[in-house]
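Fill in residues.
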């Protein structure tokens, strides 16, 4: 599988910490961190491909395609229902 789409991602070159939360982040701090990452993702030209990739590999961490792990889990559950 080619991953050339990553070269066009808005997040390319940004610190990984922007998209991967720590287990100590809770409540409003966590929500703000997720919101900031999603703000970068939403206008990204490869957002849908990024989300598809995360879904294909079952990614359980980080913001991918402007979605959280919980949002992707919900999407997977809806897809099998």
């Amino acid at each position: 599988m080619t991953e050339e789409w990553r070269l066009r991602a808005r997040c390319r070159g940004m610190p990984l910490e922007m998209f991967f939360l720590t287990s100590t982040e809770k409540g409003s701090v966590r929500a703000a961190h997720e919101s900031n990452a999603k703000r970068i993702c939403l206008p990204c030209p490869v957002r849908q491909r990024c989300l598809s990739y995360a879904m294909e590999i079952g990614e359980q961490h980080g913001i991918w395609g402007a979605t959280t792990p919980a949002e992707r889990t919900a999407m997977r559950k809806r897809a099998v229902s």
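The helical segments are 27-41, 47-57, 69-80.
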